[in-house]
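Tutorial, part two.
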Amino acid sequence: MARGTHRRYFATFSYENGAVPRVGPNVFLAPTSAVVGNVTIGKNSSIWYNCVLRGDVNEIRIGEETNIQDGTVIHVAKNNAKGVALPTVIGDRVTVGHMALLHACTLEDLSFVGMAATVMDGAVVKKGAMIAAGSLVTPGKR
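Running the prediction step on this input gives:
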């Protein structure tokens, strides 16, 4: 299959609020990825096999040249434990390892999240920081 032909096969869905994913140019979306609702993916980024990006009750923003690897789940918070609505914001040139879970958090530019790591509500991974594989970043941590 030629480069770029995957795009027509992946699952994108609007949500009941009418939000539709917005995908930049030259984005690789694996055929088994699911991108739902209010999701923006910047140019030259990649969303690999079996990833779920669910922008149903808030927004997900992914910057340019960012790599979201196989099996990662990205979600948002309508009202977290403190009653705060939080999006998930991922900067430019970020790498997220296989099977990571990102929930209502921020990953700044050039950061790295290792395989099977979890980053929770309100946590911020600073520019250039690295989160080890299997780590848990608890709510609100920086």
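Confidence is low (pLDDT under 50) at residues 1-9. In part three we will examine how such features are distributed along the chain.
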